[in-house]
Amino acid sequence: MITAADSTITQAEKPKVNFAIAGCGTIARTHIEAIKLHPNAQLAALYSSNMEKATQWGKEFEVSCYTDYEKMLQSPAVDAVIILTPSGRHAEFGIPAARAGKHVIVEKPIDTTLEKSRQLIEACHQANVKLSCIFQHRFDEAIMALKHAIETEKLGPLHFGSSRTTWYRPQEYYDSGKWRGTMALDGGGALMNQAIHYIDLLLYTMGPVEEVHAYCATRAHERIEVEDIAAAVLKFKSGAIGMIEGNTAAYPGFETTLDVFGQNGSVRIVSDEVSEWHVKGEENEQKHTEAEVQAAAAGRDTQKNISVKSFVRQYADIVEAIVQDREPLVNGKEALNSLALILAIYQSAESGKPVALDAFARN
Question: Which Pfam families does the protein's record reference (predicted)?
């Protein structure tokens, strides 16, 4: 078993990290594919509360299948557990995994409340295991290029940043599971489930938020407790201004957009690809072909056509973090940032007043 203490193992020895998956929903296949594509990762086990599904998936992927989660955690063949349950149960599954000495990976968001998320972070810290949250878009080529440009100060001081997720979810989406659209297990709607990826990217590129003023509404769906439209105005700690839109009522579904505008340059990323890249002094450099720009601008709802490449890159980071005993790029503290901002947006929308992030996060 690879543990956090095994930092003396060299890359040349190519140790494998054995992953178990808890929760066999649709996204699980993407995680399994990413694991298979990494030479130092291996799928070792699957858990589902549904006996039929656990047996079916166990046979399909030729691994041990469990309907008893605690029993799976006792297996010495498992190094790390990937939690793909409904969001409101991430800590519930992650804490016992950490206490069993397993590294913990959770799908976004880290959980649905700051309290439960902090409990999970503390459990992993006490057990000396790694915790990572899946925000694979940080590993998109476009985002890595943008982050490098910001870190090397090519864009100069940043003045404005925005995140827009304009997707569509039919009523059938929310009706497909009793937990969907509930505050207890979904934790929120368009922001918490769909827009959170680009909200994470906004924070990753623009830095922390000082204050937010927001509105949320449920306009296009029935029988849900969560928002399907949200808009927020942000003031970053740097002094920059920003905006967030989360929307699952934009029929028939459009793109995700990240704008970062600086003193010396501006970048627009549309559906995970660079649409506009302008840096003073580099105007004559052809960054992208016209075909690439048009393809990005035409992108619609990338969740429906998920690329595994960025998942593979994030799993490479997770495996390396485990083997080298370092923090993964998206650790628990990083994952907490987007959750805190979304929850602050909800509070602002409910109160009708601006919310200061530092004070909110302390509560």
Answer: GFO_IDH_MocA, GFO_IDH_MocA_C
Paired strand residues for 160 = 241, 261
Residue 239 near residue 340, CB atoms below 8 Å: no
Alpha helical stretches, state H, 207-356: 290-297, 309-324, 332-351
Residue 169 region, left (φ>0) first, then alpha (ψ -120 to 50), else beta? beta
Helices (H), the chain: 28-36, 51-61, 69-73, 90-99, 114-127, 141-151, 171-175, 196-206, 290-297, 309-324, 332-351, 357-362
CA distance 182 to 174: 9
Q: How far is CA 28 from the centre of its chain?
A: 14
What is the edge-to-edge ordering of all strands in the sheet holding 41-47? 64-66, 41-47, 17-22, 80-83, 103-107, 131-134
| pTM: predicted TM-score of the whole model, two decimal places | 0.91
* Separation of alpha carbons 202 and 214, rounded Å: 16
- Quick one: pLDDT at residue 265? 97
Question: In the chain, what are the domains?
Answer: 11-136+310-330 (3.40.50.720), 141-271+273-305+339-362 (3.30.360.10)
Angle at 202 between CA 199 and CA 205, to 5 degrees: 150
Token output for 330: 């998206």
Largest distance between two CA atoms of the chain? 61
| 8 Å CB contact between 96 and 118 | no
Tens digits of residue pLDDT in 272-287: 999 999 999 887 654 5
Q: Residue 302's closest CA among 235, 255, 245?
A: 255
Query: 110, 357, 16: which is closest to 214 by C-alpha?
Result: 357
Residue of 337, 357, 342 lying closest to 118 (CA atoms):
337
Give residue-wise pLDDT tens across range 160-182.
Answer: 999 999 999 999 999 998 889 99
For residue 48, count other CB atoms closer than 10 A to its CB. Answer: 24
Amino acid at 180: R
